[in-house]
Write a structure and sequence with these properties.
This protein is an alpha+beta fold. The protein has three domains: 31 residues, no CATH class; 157 residues, no CATH class; 125 residues, no CATH class. 46% of the residues lie in helices and 14% in strands. The chain is built from ten helices and six strands; from the N terminus they run H-H-H-H-H-H-H-E-E-E-H-E-E-E-H-H. The strands form two sheets. The protein has a four-stranded antiparallel sheet with strand order 3-4-5-6. A two-stranded antiparallel ribbon has the order 1-2. The longest helix has 31 residues. The radius of gyration is 25 Å and the shape is flat. The protein starts with 17 loop residues before the first helix and ends in a 15-residue tail after the last helix.
């Protein structure tokens, strides 16, 4: 038999190994899912894929920066899009190789960001020089020579290459701009990669990522602090006093989470506070604040949360019901409190 949490072989009968039991001993009232910390080092085989993707995206990024004569916010948007695209690819590679280690995910994201940063410089110099210089520049020799990349960057910094507000940034000013760009690219890859793994739940028994279950329940409560205290003790009795969310409510709470669709033995929920506001034109702006994440619950509690859904808005819940799980049906997802 295997430990339900970390997947290690059990020395004696039970559901958890001794290490996992000890890790839960400090919090007997509520248990939260944490990654096992395991790393499949085959993920290092994903580095060539990251390199290929970074080269392709770097060309798109560099051509956009050099050939589109708009400087300012547009450049920031391009940098954010480039960083986000690289981060998404990195996160998916980590998921594909079932990495369940937060520290490794962050470091792998840093590596991905550095690769993306390097090739963005290679392609930027290649595109810039071949546009304005008659001599031209060959791509492969440049990509293989980091010292040449640095020397060209220093040369560009001395002269500048674009105008902003009637002036041409050079020297330390241009290096500051480039430093900010580098922090965005590398930082975004690292943080988004970490968030991709930390927001997910892995079933060690089935050796697969658990399914996302969105919008299990949206609700209002007049006692948020009491609700959080009860949830910290794995007490869901407060649900008897919650109310449905109306269209103009500026503040409400929602449950979403994860479940393993293979073994029906792993269920977690997140509690999120949603704040909404509207401008004078009626455009809505909302922000989410996660209050509790990856609270482990049993199947019966998950079923009860699904029954409390006020509106049938979560296709994932319906899909779960359609598998024939006892206690949940497509009809009772609309049951009111």
């Amino acid at each position: 038999m295997l430990c339900e949490k970390c997947g290690e072989a059990l020395a004696v009968s039970g559901s958890l190994c001794q290490t996992c039991q000890d890790s839960l001993s400090d919090n007997q009232s509520a248990q939260f899912y944490t990654h096992s910390g395991k790393i499949d080092f085959k993920v290092l085989g994903g580095i060539p894929a990251i390199t290929i993707v970074s080269v392709v995206l770097s060309f798109i990024y560099s051509y956009s920066v050099v050939y589109i004569p708009i400087v300012g916010y547009f450049n920031i948007i391009l940098t954010l899009c480039f960083s986000a695209a690289m981060a998404v690819v990195t996160g998916q590679i980590l998921r594909f190789f079932t990495v369940r280690n937060s520290t490794f995910s962050f470091c792998f994201g840093l590596l991905s960001g550095l690769i993306a940063l390097y090739f963005s410089w290679v392609t930027f110099e290649y595109v810039l020089i071949n546009r304005y210089s008659e001599e031209g520049l060959e791509l492969m020799p440049l990509a293989k020579d980091p010292s040449a990349v640095w020397e060209i960057a220093c040369s560009i910094a001395k002269e500048g290459w674009y105008s902003l507000g009637g002036t041409t940034p050079t020297g330390i000013v241009l290096w500051i701009f480039w430093g900010i760009e580098a922090c965005i690219i590398v930082g975004a890859c690292a943080l988004i990669s970490l968030g991709t793994i930390d927001s997910a739940v892995f079933c060690e028994r089935c050796r697969k990522w658990a399914d996302d279950v969105d919008a299990i329940l949206n609700f209002k409560t007049t006692d948020p602090q009491g609700m959080i205290e009860k949830l910290s003790s794995a007490d869901f009795s407060f649900l008897q006093n919650v109310e449905p969310v109306l269209g103009a409510d500026p503040l409400y709470f929602k449950f979403d989470g994860h479940c393993c669709g293979s073994c029906d033995d792993l269920f977690t929920v997140n509690l999120t506070q949603v704040s909404r506001s509207w401008d004078k034109d009626g455009k809505e702006d909302s922000s989410d604040d996660i209050l509790l994440q990856h609270l482990l619950i049993d199947k019966n509690t998950f079923d009860e949360l699904c029954r409390f859904s006020f509106v049938k808005s979560a296709v994932h819940v319906d899909d779960y019901a359609n598998r024939g799980t006892d206690g949940i049906s497509a009809e009772n997802t609309t049951e009111e409190v």
